[in-house]
């Protein structure tokens, strides 16, 4: 049956395809949220301040785990910057390569120097001579 100009199309609502978060994801997100206090942990130039994203240091597609050491709370602008300027983000430890250990690799933290993140949601300052 052909459509006429006066007939209306029925639209159905789009269904979300996102799976329910795992326990590991929930725990990692909660620990990072507490550590950051809801603020962007990257604090790059142009930072929006409030954290809205969970930024993986080792990407999920590269085998990166859901863990507090592998995640940073980020505003959308800082998170986008990391993906558009990958080499610079790697130099700052904001993005790691597959196989790198996020519990060992230092990360530039809120313009306050380099720290090492652990899986309990803590951060540990790194002395300048420890950064190679």
């Amino acid at each position: 049956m052909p459509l006429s100009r006066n007939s209306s199309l029925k639209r159905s609502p789009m269904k979300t395809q996102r799976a329910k978060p795992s326990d590991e994801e929930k725990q990692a997100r909660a620990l990072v949220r507490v550590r950051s206090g809801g603020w962007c942990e990257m604090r790059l130039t142009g930072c929006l301040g409030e954290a809205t994203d969970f930024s993986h240091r080792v990407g999920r597609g590269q085998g990166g785990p859901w863990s507090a050491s592998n995640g940073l709370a980020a505003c959308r602008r800082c998170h986008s910057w990391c993906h558009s300027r990958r080499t610079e983000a790697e130099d700052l430890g904001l993005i790691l390569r597959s196989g790198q250990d996020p519990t060992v690799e230092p990360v530039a933290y809120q313009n306050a120097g380099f720290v090492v993140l652990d899986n309990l949601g803590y951060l540990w300052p790194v002395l300048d001579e420890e950064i190679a």
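The beta strands are 53-56, 71-74, 107-108, 114-117, 123-125. The mean pLDDT is 90.
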